[in-house]
């Protein structure tokens, strides 16, 4: 029995797309505006992108963002992957508890996480700066890696690992030659997501950053308080393109991993 689709559902989806993406399109469009006034179009120019890379404050913020993103991504990918592998081997009840703890940084509001980490650092007497931002980013990025790798492990099954052990492979050999190649697309995808989340994060970074550890989102926030300029639109456009590219790469790696798994399962 075929069900009729409500026309209101399509209209609702269209309105949501317009509401979400039209403002982004305006940001991209006005980053090429020849006028400093964002509401007035005077022609096409690339001058704002040129001046953006000549701005020492922007370059310092970009350097801080990249340092934080790279270090936190490497640490979060390692910790999240190890946690996913470890939780896979525990009992069902303990697995549910661990899943709840690992999902917590994803579901709680960013402002609560940022404030709680700031209180923790103050109690420990840790001075806020790049180190505290890196620790904070590892805290929430690790959960995203864990979710992606866990889903990859759940879909992999244990048949190949058990077959390798039956053929005399050691636990390390089984992990090196069977488990790791199967979950590598998930690890790469989780790392890309963690890098994107770290690069775009504002709320948590705002709470735990110091005077000399301004990241790009914090710099943008400080400049927007003085008014939106085409230079800020250009910077936002670059961040949007980088984020979208990384998300598509992450999804591609996941889909590629699923395709490779199906090919290995074919009997020919």
TrEMBL record:
Pfam families associated with the record: BPD_transp_1
Major place of residence: membrane
A Gene Ontology BP annotation from the UniProt entry: transmembrane transport
GO CC annotations, alphabetized: plasma membrane
Record's protein name: ABC transporter permease
Domain ABC transmembrane type-1 positions: 62-250
Keyword Metal-binding: no
Gene3D superfamilies in alphabetical order: MetI-like
Entry's localization field: Cell membrane
PROSITE patterns the record matches: ABC_TM1
Keywords for the protein's UniProt record, in alphabetical order: Cell membrane, Membrane, Transmembrane, Transmembrane helix, Transport
Keyword Transmembrane helix: yes
Record's bilayer topology term: Multi-pass membrane protein
Family named by the database record: Belongs to the binding-protein-dependent transport system permease family. CysTW subfamily.
Positions of transmembrane segments: 12-32, 66-88, 100-125, 131-149, 232-254
